[in-house]
Amino acid sequence: MLKFYFNGAPNPTKVALFLEETGLPCELIAVDTRKGDQFKPEFLKVNPNGKVPAIDDDGTFVFDSNAILLYLGEKTGKFMPANTPQSHAQLYSWLMFIATGLGPYSGQAVHFKHFAPKDLEYAHNRYQFEAHRHYKILDDHLARNKYMLGDTYTIVDMALWGWVRMGAFILGEEGFAKYPNVKRVLDEISARPAAVRALALKDKFTFKAEMDDEARHIMFGHLKTKAA
Ligand SMILES: N[C@@H](CCC(=O)N[C@@H](CS)C(=O)NCC(=O)O)C(=O)O
Prior knowledge:
61% of the residues lie in helices and 8% in strands. It is of the alpha+beta class. Strands 2-1-3-4 form a four-stranded mixed sheet, covered by helices on one side. Strand 3 (54-57) and strand 4 (60-63) form a beta hairpin. It is globular, with a radius of gyration of 18 Å.
């Protein structure tokens, strides 16, 4: 059976949504990144990058959330656009935009807004600016399109949902309010029963809630290097 290595963070949540939408049977394996589970040798065999999500599909290992969405989409034929190079051009473009732009810039924006020392104004401003720039591109796109690839809900919307669910945390309530079209798609997907179930998966386990010094030293490797 497919093993799903996950926690409640944005990237695993995209895959949780796909699994809930399709009802693919899977075994849930909790990876508590605030306690260092991501560095256990058995997990690093599945994802050498030491991050969630990852899957083990009967011996086929896949890591990186958007790669997993593509793999499962191709395997099941579900939530994919038409199988033509033309449709796939948009699929690949937006998935990469989310994987290399929205996700990483949002992650760094969160880091400098919530977790880094407060005096790093330059870094904070840079990542807020880039996160906003990505949200504006998405908002303009969704002003013209019902979903990311047009009229049909696909894996790209799932990838989007994983991150924009955190929009108010990343940009602040006022910042996020500037993107009503992103909010429309977020609200629509969040109301789907599969999305409600996807968000509830983490509640089957007890994950460490506090981002204390121990968690920071585990997750932010440069702190460890400095201390060594
Ligand atoms: N590009 C990867 C990024 C994965 C990633 O950064 N995951 C975060 C959770 S959203 C994580 O595992 N963080 C723990 C850590 O950095 O130690 C993907 O899309 O799956």
